[in-house]
């Protein structure tokens, strides 16, 4: 741990780095559909494009980015019927 702290303090470029976890509900991919139950409702699955769009926003606008160490739950936006909701879990 001490070496990690020393490395972190000695490298200024690490100041802009963020490490977080995305915790999606089921992601709508061809492989997940292949192994899904016959009655699975794909409308209730998170689209990979929605996750990519949000991450792109964080890259373009760092002030929107969650803090390093955050856990972000992701699930489809049932109110709008499209897109995804990103909610801070921790």
Overview of this protein structure:
Helix content is 30%, strand content 17%. By secondary structure, the chain is an alpha+beta fold. The protein has helices at residues 2-10, 30-34, 48-60, and strands at 21-24, 71-76, 84-88. The protein is built from three helices and three strands. The two termini are 22 Å apart. The model has no long low-confidence stretch (mean pLDDT 90). The chain has a three-stranded mixed beta sheet with strand order 1-2-3, covered by helices on one side. 7% of the residues are buried.
Short description:
It is built from 3 helices and 3 strands.
Helix fraction bin: 25-40%
- Number of helical runs? 3
The coarse overall form would be: elongated
Query: In percent terms, what proportion of residues is strand?
Result: 15-25%
Strand order of the largest sheet: 1-2-3
Strand element count: 3
C-alpha-based Rg, rounded: 17 Å
- Main sheet characteristics: 3 strands, mixed
Distance between the termini: 22 Å
> Unreliable runs, pLDDT <50, ≥5 residues?
none
Order of helices and strands: HEHHEE
Describe the secondary-structure layout.
Blueprint: H1 2-10, E1 21-24, H2 30-34, H3 48-60, E2 71-76, E3 84-88
Parallel strand pairs: 1-2
Antiparallel strand pairs: 2-3
Short descriptors:
3 strands, about 90 residues, 3-stranded mixed β-sheet, alpha+beta
């Amino acid at each position: 741990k001490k070496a990690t702290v020393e490395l972190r303090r000695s490298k200024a470029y690490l100041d802009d780095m963020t490490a977080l976890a995305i915790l999606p509900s089921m992601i709508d991919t061809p492989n997940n559909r292949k192994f899904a139950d016959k009655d699975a409702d794909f409308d209730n699955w998170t689209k990979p494009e929605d996750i990519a769009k949000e991450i792109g926003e964080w890259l373009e606008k760092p002030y929107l980015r969650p803090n390093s160490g955050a856990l972000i739950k992701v699930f489809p936006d049932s109110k709008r019927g499209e897109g995804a909701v990103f909610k801070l879990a921790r």
